[in-house]
Structure formats: structure tokens, C-alpha cells
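dude i think i finally got it to work??
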Amino acid sequence: MPSLLITRVGASRYQVYLLTQLTASMIIDVAPALSTAFIWAWASITYGDFMRRIKPITVNFLRMLYASTALLIPAILLRFNVGAVWGSLSGLLSLAIGDSLYLMSINYSGVSVAAPVSYTYIPITVLLATLLGEPLTALKVASGILVVVGVYLLSHGESRVTIRGVLLALGASLAWAIGQTLIKVADVNGLNPITLAFTRVAAACIVLLIVNYITHNDLEGAIKSTIHTRLPLVAILDYYVKYRLF
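look at this
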């Protein structure tokens, strides 16, 4: 009888151990998606605050400027290759075009509408990646859904649904999906993650600089008013950390 009791206690402890390991594994698997959702939601709200006094296209330029400045030296040290071409194209599509559409969507419909609609690009990207040979797994689908739901919950608040705002958000979603797929192409060509991040933001920064110059936006004043705020930190987290996490 004592030996049977010991056996049962040992089995129970082993079951608890297995359950603990399984729970820990699940937390580790979903942690990047949840962390990404937090960064996206926080970044979206922050950008919305700055756009109350600065034009969306200028805010987008500032994000690229701060992120590319932070990544410049590491990118040079790690060197470039042919993948930088695909990285630049990705930046033009997803950052210059997609992000500008997204920021304008926030202006028309608010973060609580623009963010969830725009971030449907994640499941779309997962599907597009299958064209490049990536397997479609339940974990990838679940992570994509988790991010969209997480962004919605974290950014949920006062909203004003407009057709223009929703269409702009959908346009951003499509541009982001294609841009993200090009990241995979750059990665296949051996471009390291930091240089890839730099080529994306630098390419978009140049285009947005030209657009802001043509539209006579006050870039000098915008830089002076934001350089000592949380915008530079948010830009770096938004354009490098979140993509590494996801």
C-alpha cells in the first residue's frame, strides 16, 4: 500500500511537471505576438497624439528619420548585399505608402478603427508567405489573430467610423502585406536583420523627405519639437523591435 501511494504521488508530480512545462512553452510561444501587439497599440496612440499638431506625412517622416539615424552605424558595420534592394522596395511600399495611409486613417477614424483594420495585414502576410515556400502552421495563424485582437483591445476607445478612414486602413493593410513579403525575399538573399531594418526606413525616409519638401511642411520645426519627446524611442521600437519579436 505505501509503495502504491508513493507511485501515485510520483505520477501526480510528473503530471504537474508536464503541465507546467506545457504552460511555460505556450507562454513563450505567444509572448512575441502579445509583445508586438502592445508595441503596435502604444505606438499608434503615440502617433495619434503627435498628429494633433503635426501633419501625418510629417509625423511619418520623423519616425523614419529617428529610426534610420539609430540604425545607421550598426547597418554599416554589418554591411549590405543585394538583399538591400528588396529591403528598400519593402520600405517604399510598407513604410512610405502603407504607414502614410495608416496615419491618415487614424486622422479620419481614430486608432480604435484604423489599427484593427490595418493589422489584418498580418494574416494576409502569413498567407502570402506560403508563395515563398513557408509552411502555414496553426501557431502562425493563431499569432496573427492574437496580434489583431490584442491591438484592438489595447487601442479600443472612442471611434468615428468613416468610409474614407476604413478604405485608407485597408490600403495600408495591402501595402504592408506586400512589403512584409518582400522582407522575406531580402532575408533569403542573406541580408542581416539590422541592415534590413535600416534599408527599409532609410528608403522611406528619403521619399517622405521629398514629399514634405514639395508640400512645404516645416520639417525643422517638427524635428525641434519632437526630438526630446518619446517619439524617437517609439519609432525605434516600432520599426525594429516589433518585427524581430513577431
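The chain is about 85% helix and 0% strand.
im so relieved honestly
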